[in-house]
Amino acid sequence: MFNLIYFNSYIHQRSWRWNSRSATERALQYKVGEKIHGFTINQVTAVPDLFLTAIKLSHDSTGAKYLHVARDDPNNLFSVQLRTTPLDSTGVPHILEHVVLCGSEKYPCRDPFFKMLNRSLSTFMNAFTASDYTMYPFSTQNSKDFQNLLSVYLDAVFFPCLRELDFCQEGWRLEHENPHDPSSPLVFKGVVFNEMKGAFTDNEKLYAQHVQNKILPDHTYSVVSGGDPMHIPELTWEELKHFHATHYHPSNARFFTYGDLPLEQHLKQIQEEALCKFNRIETDTAVPIQQRWSKPRECHVTCGPDSMAPDPTKQTMFSVSFLLGDITDSFEGFTLSLLSSLLVSGPNSPFYKALIEFQIGTDFAPVVGYDGSTREACFSVGLQGIAEQDIQTVKQIIVKIIDETIKNGFEEERIEALLHKIEIQQKHQSTNFGLALASFISTTWNHDGDPVEVLQINEKVTWFRKCLKENPHFLQEKVKQYFKENQHQLALSMSPDEAYFANQAKIEKEKLQQKTSSLSEEEKLNIVKKGLELMTAQRTLEDVSCLPALKVSDIQPMFTFTPVEMEYVAGEVPVQYCAQPTNGVVYFRAFTNLNTLPEDLKLYVPLFCNVITRMGCGVLDYRQQAQRIELKTGGMSASPQVLQDNTNLDMYEQGVMFTSLCLDRNLSDMMQLWADIFNNPRFDDEEYLRVLVTMAAQELSNGIPDSGHLYASVQASKTLTPAGNLAEMFDGISQDVPRRYTVGSGPEQGGIGQGEGREGREQGRGRESRGELKARSKRKVLRPALKEEREEARQRHWGIEFQSLGAERLKARSPMVGRLGRGMWSRPEPEERRVRAGR
């Protein structure tokens, strides 16, 4: 909805556009060459597959690029993206992202984004720095709120205060360890400085950074855009301001708006509050094509040892990375992304079979598959959790699989499964679809590719099928071109060095000594003065009245009620049916409580959730099940749940949530899969269970550095309520201490942790809770427990069968029998209703 008074004049001027039934239809009435508030329309394109109309514009005075995506979605989004391509590792784009959010000309208070949280109804507010661009997006469903946030964002990005004190706080500074005590030692401080010190202790991030720096060594990708802690202190305040002047300019900007609000008002506000104050400049931010190598390269780097590693003797990471084509070639990128999935995604992929199931390592290397985040895409494959002497073995396997793929190609069913996955991804409406689109087009658009072409996915699928039909060896030739004959490939290994952290501390100490040794007495006094000034500023209560705020009259007093149809199956199991415009996608959720599960088995619930949809079911082994899931669904997952009663802290409900989605035509197949999973799960392949658990342990270990605050929160709440205690068992630090869990018959056969494996994510799984695993035999615990659960389900008649058509049609196609508690469905509206709604 939008403020009618505010838009009154524009309604009269453009009334012909408001007579249309939908935002997409209104957008189609714009004409190429039409000028609106300083912008010229360059292209108007309908993208029916995504139910949207894309309008490309350019700003006449500054050359700023603009893309508006009109769609019947009330969750409207804005983002402004700047191409930020640093040529050193001082972290200037990252620090600048922080400093611009410390106040602007119109809104001089610190951290306006945070302070807008209680003055806004935003559904998203943030900013982030990539390797070659910085983006500032927000979204909201309220039209007045959109105007308020747009004003704050425009002023922050283009007219920040950039105060020296803010640079010292956010970037880096020399300060006494105790600012009140000048005799205490001088140390480096700063938000970004400390953030990046933490990032450099995360071996996954460190490895990914090395891959990018070394396979693209000639320009901006050879440096650390976020900042190397040892180089951050080289950045000056003057250099930061210069970077802003040359990079945060409309001539270097790409504006994106999405949703059902009128384009004219966006353009008017952006023009009047920002762009009218600038003239065009020549920008020097483009990223050149990387010069290709004449032969492959190898490199070895070191990292800190991981105290949480499942096997301390196997902490080496190794992968081979191949530089691919220009990201602006959208069809080639589409083809290579699909090819990557065929090679590494799921247990049926050749690299999964050869590397993961070979059990030489714990999981794929941190950088795996297609990476389209740089000007030229890359493909990487390798392993982590290997012994250093196994590097050559992994390398030989990679070469062997490439040769075999060129010779044998891919099964047609796997290709169809991936094309089905693309179809369901197109139809699936994520919570913030506008943000997903902005992120999806960001890299291609950043390098002057066509963002609208990126959105036309069905055309690429059609062309891909045509290429495959005309040339059955189409994909094999791509493998040969990009992997066999490609000389621009990097073999990178990284292994732990016991002296790594000591060496880093020594380098920092030397850098500090270099900075402090030449300080004059006046400079030393100034450090003390600035430290106290900063502390005073941080403690000063700011006047935030300059920030815009919503009034009660700006807020819609009523919200749309969603009707839900309730039925009971087997006399006691409640099932809800909810008709929604879901673009032909059916969503399923079911909850079963764990009240009757013995306490000593609850430790194993997270592990059960992790493997229950991945071990096979009915007559399907795990490979066949994975293939069936990809062919017929958008993913199937299970996760532990602890639901607190907010009216009584001593009450809670514990259970497992099962979730999945599928296209309407595949509903019966999806429900048959659930029926087989509930009634006939397979846990007879102990070797594959070992593979899944080993991957889970590695994922758990890798995830700890980024999750310390979450573990602290869960641990702190453990003693407050019974629900908190159970949540800690399912998701707390107890699970992070490596526990021995026996997959075979003896404890020496394997240590396991719990987490979500990479292959699970490929199947559309959400984040899984981590579980504590004790030394128990799978043969003695897991299989009997599952058998008892199934038997109890049958005895208590907790089954669901949908037999009649109506909400009928949906119910009839759901032949699921199993133990379920509550079910929630979101199903497509009838086709005629979508037509009437203009979709």
From TrEMBL:
Q: Where in the cell is it found?
A: Mitochondrion matrix
Cofactor list = Zn(2+)
Which parts of this chain are annotated as the region Disordered? 737-794, 819-839
Q: What are the protein's UniProt keywords?
A: Hydrolase, Metal-binding, Metalloprotease, Mitochondrion, Protease, Zinc
**UniProt-listed Pfam families:** M16C_assoc (PF08367), Peptidase_M16 (PF00675), Peptidase_M16_C (PF05193)
Could you tell me one molecular function GO term of this UniProt entry? metal ion binding
Q: Can you list the GO cellular component terms from the UniProt entry?
A: mitochondrial matrix
One record GO biological process: protein processing
Instruction: Tell me where in this chain the Peptidase M16C associated domain is found.
Output: 494-737
Quote the InterPro entries the UniProt record gives.
Metalloenz_LuxS/M16, Pept_M16_N, Peptidase_M16_C, Peptidase_M16C_assoc
Q: Where is the composition biased (Basic and acidic residues)?
A: 756-775, 785-794, 828-839
Main location group: mitochondrion
**Known partners and oligomeric status:** Monomer and homodimer; homodimerization is induced by binding of the substrate.
**Of which family is this protein a member?**
Belongs to the peptidase M16 family. PreP subfamily.
This chain's protein is named Presequence protease, mitochondrial
Q: What is the lineage of its organism?
A: Eukaryota, Metazoa, Chordata, Craniata, Vertebrata
